[in-house]
Amino acid sequence: MATTEIEGVCDSRFKEVQEAFIENFAKRGEVGASVAIYVEGRPVVDLWAGHADKNRTTSWERDTIVNVYSSTKGATTICAHRLVEQERLDVDAPVASYWPEFAEAGKEGIPVRYLLSHQAGMPAVRETLPPDSLYDWDVMTAALAKQEPWWEPGTKHGYHAVTFGWLVGEVVRRISGKSLGAFFHDEVAEPLGLDFHIGMSAEHDSRTADIIPARPPEPGEPNPMAQRMADRESLAARALSLGGSGGVNSREWRAAELPAANGHTNARGLARLYAPLGLRGDLDGVHLLTEDTVKAAIVEQANGMDEVLGMHTVFALGFMVPGGDTFAVPSPGAFGHPGAGGSLGFADPGAGVGFGYAMNQMMTAGVTPRRRR
C-alpha cells in the first residue's frame, strides 16, 4: 500500500501525534482526516491527509470540511452556556418558561438541565411524520412539544442523539430570536474565526468531503448497536435513525440546521472551538465562556446505563465527561463531545488543550483507537 502523504505542521514536541496520524491511514482504514491541537492558546498540531471521496480522486486539502455528526453537540452546548453566562438562561428553570408549548403532555416542570443532560425522556419523536420532516424545524419542534416523555424525566438518562439539537436549539431560539445556526455563527464561529457551519450554504459544497458509510460487519462479528437497531420500532432505532432524502452528503442535509448532528468543520475548527475552554475562556482577545461558567457546565449530571445506547455514558450539562464507554480521553478533567464514526472535539483545562479530529470514513467498530491513539 502506498504511503499516505501527510500535510500541515506539527511542533517537534508532538511528533508522536503525527506518527499516530500516519498509522491511522496505514493500519486503521482512514480515508481522509484531519487532526489539530492547541496548547495554551497556540496551535501546535494542524495536520491533514488522504482523500475527500470514496473513489480517492479528490485530495483532502487544508480547507476541506466534513460532517462531524454529534461533535456538533459541543458547539450547541456552548451556545446554551453563553446564554447562561449572560443571565438570559437558567438551567433550573422549566423549559416551558422559555418555550410555552413544551408544557403539553405533563412536561410543564421539566427543567432545561434535563435537556442538556439527556434526562428529559425525549430522545425520539413518537409521531410518524412525513419524509424529510427532519429538515423542517417547526414540524420537529412542534412534534416534540406536544408529546409525552418516554420515561419519567430525571429518573433515567438516554442519548438524545438528534432531538438534542431541536430541544436545546429551540430554547436558544426562543431566548435570542435567532436560529441555533445563526446564533452560533454570530456569537462563536465568526468572533473566533471558525470554519464551522450549522446549516451550510452551497458555496462550501465543493470543499466538503463525502461521508463514506461503514463497511458491513463480517459474519459473526459483534455489532451490538446494529442489534439494538434491528427492531425498527425500538427506542434505539427511533432515536438514532436519520431519515431524509439524499442522505448525509445531500444538499438538503447540509443546508438544514440539525444542531445535534450536522455541523460541518474540520479538526482545526473543533480544536479552535475548544481552545478557549482550555485557556480560562478567552483566545486571541475573544471571550467565549468564563472559568466559572465552564466549571458549572461540566459538573456530572447523569452516569450509568444509557437507555438508548445500551452502554455506559456520563453527561454533564451538554458535554460528555470521562467515565463511560463513549468519551475515551486520557485526562479526567477533559470534557467535550465525540461524533459518530470517529470525530471528536474536547478541552482539557488542566493541560491548556483544545483538541479536534475529523474524518470521512465511518466505522461501527474500532472507532476509539483512531481518535484516542
How would you describe this protein?
The chain has helices at 15-27, 72-85, 112-116, 137-146, 163-176, 180-192, 224-229, 235-240, 251-255, 267-274, 291-297, 367-372; strands at residues 6-10, 32-39, 42-50, 66-67, 197-198, 263-265, 282-283, 286-287, 302-305, 312-315, 335-338, 344-348, 353-359. The chain has 373 residues and is an alpha+beta fold. The strands form 4 sheets. Strands 1-3-2-13-12-11 form a 6-stranded antiparallel sheet, sandwiched between helices. The chain is globular and about 60 Å long.
Summarize this structure as a short list of keywords or feature phrases.
373 residues, alpha+beta, six-stranded antiparallel beta sheet, three-stranded antiparallel beta sheet, 12 helices, 13 strands
